[in-house]
Amino acid sequence: MNEEELRALRILLKASTSVENVVKKDMSSYGLNATEFTVLELLYSKGKQPIQKIGQQVLLASSSITYVVTRLEEKTLILRKTDENDRRVTFCELSDKGRSLMEDIFPKHAEKISEIFEPCSKDEVIELQKTLKKVGYKAAELLE
Description:
mainly alpha; 6 helices; 8% strand
């Protein structure tokens, strides 16, 4: 490993931690933890989803997703509905309160994300995406 790669790794990890902390702080300002916000955002952007698919998309074990869904249901932000054709499948969707909340907070959250990338030009953001994908794919490959 050369010195520049080690330096790049330190910068990547520090930047990742800082970005994660800003995003989590923003999410918590709405009374939600990161997982709850991610589930609400998925339902807001994609509509009704089977619970199993939600877990796969937000990378949570089935026991964890059940807990998160229950918490969001207790907050009356989502509704569970059993599939009429297959009673083994349960769907989740935003309640009216959940949709109203996301319509209010998602634009603010998107603004916070834009603020993080403010120092970068559009071309720099695109280049960052490409670079991070390369590094991420290689790291995933090394885990196989």
